[in-house]
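Students often ask what a holo structure prediction actually looks like on paper. The answer is less mysterious than it sounds. You provide the chain, you provide the ligand, and the output is a string of discrete structure tokens encoding the 3D arrangement of the protein together with nicotinamide-adenine-dinucleotide.
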Amino acid sequence: MKHSIFKVPELKNEEIKGYLKNSDERKDVVETYNSMYNENIKIPLYIGNEEVYTEERKNINPPHDHKKIVGSYSICNSSHVKKAINSALTIKDQWTNTPWKERAAIFLKAAELIAGPYRSKINAATMIGQSKTIFQAEIDAACELVDFLKLNIVYMSEIYKEQPITVGEVSNRLEYRPLEGFVYAITPFNFTAIGGNLCASAALMGNVILWKPSDHQIYSAKVIMDVFNEAGLPKGVINMVTGDPVLVTDIALNNSNLSGIHFTGSTNVFKQLWTKVGTNINLYKDYPRIVGETGGKDFIVSHPSANSRVVSTAIVRGAFEYQGQKCSAASRVYIPKSKSVEIFNNLKEQISSITLGSPIDFQHFMTAVIHKGSFDKIVNYIEHARNNKESEILIGGDYNEDKGYFVSPTVILTTNPKFTTMQEEIFGPVVTIYVYPDENWKETLTLVDQTSIYALTGAFISEDKESVKYALRHLRYSAGNFYINDKPSGAVVGQQPFGGSRASGTNDKAGSKLNLLRWVSPRLIKENFNPPTEYPYPYMK
Ligand code: NAD
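The corresponding structure tokens follow.
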């Protein structure tokens, strides 16, 4: 199809389905969930043309029912990782030379498969493996992933259109070459869409990928690989290995063909990756592109003029949706003394109606946290706050791991604005409030800016326009995604490109042109139609 110019998809988000009682989509997802729950699936490694089922395996246990085994996944060894990298490099030339419209068509089909026939499967896998409620699964695994896959095609075409000027007898053009080697994608447990996007965005731009998903997102990662296969992605373009993250990483980072790292996860792991790349810098053919979106300590600041109900709702949704396991989850809150009683009462009222349980029981707003390590870490923070004279548990503070890793929505109140839980990422349903004297709201913004190493998201709630201007200016570098009169979470692809700076990452804004630009190495091509034949310039005469 060399004789046509293709139109790209519309810049439009996937519609979120409601899953109301007796709706078709609800019946579908419940049926799929129940059958997947009892299937005992075996997940392979995806290396080139092969699906490798290793002898060494680990079980997949739903966090809300951790004694139940729903399947197992393969544990790779070093030869699998090397083979996966070689498979990627073997198909590299073919994939790089695949016209962009054909690459786009594959990922567009993948998006359509997720929006349609795979929707209930990818949602059910996310509910089972990552303990998301149907709503949280729908906005992530279905809608956000579809949006990433579709909208990135639009952004790719916009990048390709950006060309230098051509003047007189000279033609100039930029060829947006994929990176020369392979890209290593390492993804977290908490978003199925991030798993799919971190490999697909680089692959869309013509790169070949080694993908290592989190041990706690493998069920939905398998569905993503099935979708890519069915969409016609040539085998070997995205190779998925699962197993020891350090083993996989060390092999990938010791390969001279490493051209990029596409990481989302915790700050410490990202710093380790960066350090290893620095140590190996003389090994690589390219300077590897390093893109990492990492931790957060996301804030809500309520100005004295704010509506208390807006503040408490932003806290409840911002801090407790998906059990606070969003990098953007609100976890430190600053409220004025004059509104504190009203806000506490609102919070108590709203939180008292929250129930926790299995995601297949649709009445629940929250389910379990991801694993035992996370549960223990969250419990330690709660107990630390309970036993400290600078803090008290205002709401919640209960937990139970008999069946699943359940932690109730917890609100800590502290008199120390730099209390541990105001600074460190907990990644659970725990939010800490500091009450400030109303007249100190400007000084409080300085506290907000200087309390944590992170700068991912933040919200300022106010009815006073001047205060909003002041906050925007004084919190300029405190958050990469800044929300006014809203919760600090829930970014939508194409609407709120996502990412933060400082210890929160390289701020390459997933789901935007800025991110895709990291996966190309442009070549300028100048062609002279009338090359000179003598060296002297006219002025020399
Ligand atoms: P994690 O850092 O534990 O794991 C992320 C990935 O890194 C996984 O694939 C894991 O297996 C791998 N990994 C772990 N240790 C490693 C090591 N030593 N070397 C190489 N790879 C290693 O993170 P997680 O628990 O899966 O996810 C939660 C974290 O991710 C939170 O800190 C959260 O803020 C962050 N996150 C950030 C964003 C963002 O956009 N900023 C989005 C989602 C999650």
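DSSP finds 16 helices and 23 strands in the chain.
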